[in-house]
């Protein structure tokens, strides 16, 4: 029974220590922190800019689908059916800002760095290096030529 537990726990430990799992965990933690930054930018910068044309709270933008529509001061709908397109707009802006920052500040520089690294590496298009067996065969053939002497047509005996 203890071997089974050790095997299961050992397998679980191996799973956790794989590079992919640790990289994913780091990405989730950084992503969560980054989401807070983006939400702050949307609430602190984007919403006031949009607020210049209306209200600074995008969640207040709504259309009355079935009326009469009545809301409390807190924003809670008491009567009617609202389509809250402001919250959809806010989520869309958050997504677009997040995607732009990830692309321009993370992916694009990483791609440029990888391209520079690839340019520094020698190209694989050249002739392949001879294998050890091919080198030994070349050495053997050279030694055989040297033994025979120039202009000799005789073939050495095979052993």
Attribute tags:
single chain, 159 residues, mainly alpha, two-stranded antiparallel sheet, 2 strands, elongated
Alpha-carbon distance between the termini? 61 Å
Mean pLDDT: 79
Spans where pLDDT lies below 50 across 5 or more residues: none
Strand proportion:
5-15%
Sequence of strands across the biggest β-sheet: 1-2
Number of DSSP helical runs: 4
Q: H/E order of the elements?
A: HHEEHH
- The radius of gyration over CA amounts to 35 Å
Share of helix, binned: 55-70%
Give the number of DSSP strands: 2
Concise structural overview:
By secondary structure, the protein is mainly α. 64% of the residues lie in helices and 10% in strands. It contains four helices and two strands, in the order ααββαα.
Structure description:
- The chain has 159 residues and is mostly helical.
- It has helices spanning 2-17, 19-51, 85-120, 132-148; strands at 63-71, 77-83.
- Strands 1-2 form a two-stranded antiparallel ribbon.
- Helix 2 (19-51) packs across helix 3 (85-120).
- The two termini are 61 Å apart.
- The model has no long low-confidence stretch (mean pLDDT 79).
What's the arrangement of secondary structure elements?
Layout lengths: L1 H16 L1 H33 L11 E9 L5 E7 L1 H36 L11 H17 L11
Helix pairs in contact: 2-3
């Amino acid at each position: 029974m203890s071997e089974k537990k050790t095997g299961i726990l050992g397998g679980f430990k191996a799973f956790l220590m794989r590079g992919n799992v640790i990289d994913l965990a780091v990405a989730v933690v950084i992503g969560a922190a980054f989401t807070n930054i983006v939400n702050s930018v949307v609430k602190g910068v984007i919403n006031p800019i949009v607020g210049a044309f209306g209200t600074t709270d995008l969640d207040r933008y709504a259309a009355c689908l079935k009326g009469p529509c009545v809301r409390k001061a807190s924003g809670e709908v008491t009567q009617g059916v609202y389509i809250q397109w402001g919250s959809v707009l806010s989520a869309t802006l958050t997504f677009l800002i997040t995607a732009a920052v990830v692309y321009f500040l993370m992916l694009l520089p990483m791609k440029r760095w990888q391209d520079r690294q690839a340019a520094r590496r020698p190209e694989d298009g050249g002739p392949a290096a001879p294998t050890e067996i091919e080198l030994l065969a070349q050495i053997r053939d050279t030694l055989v030529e040297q033994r025979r002497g120039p202009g000799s047509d005789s073939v050495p005996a095979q052993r």
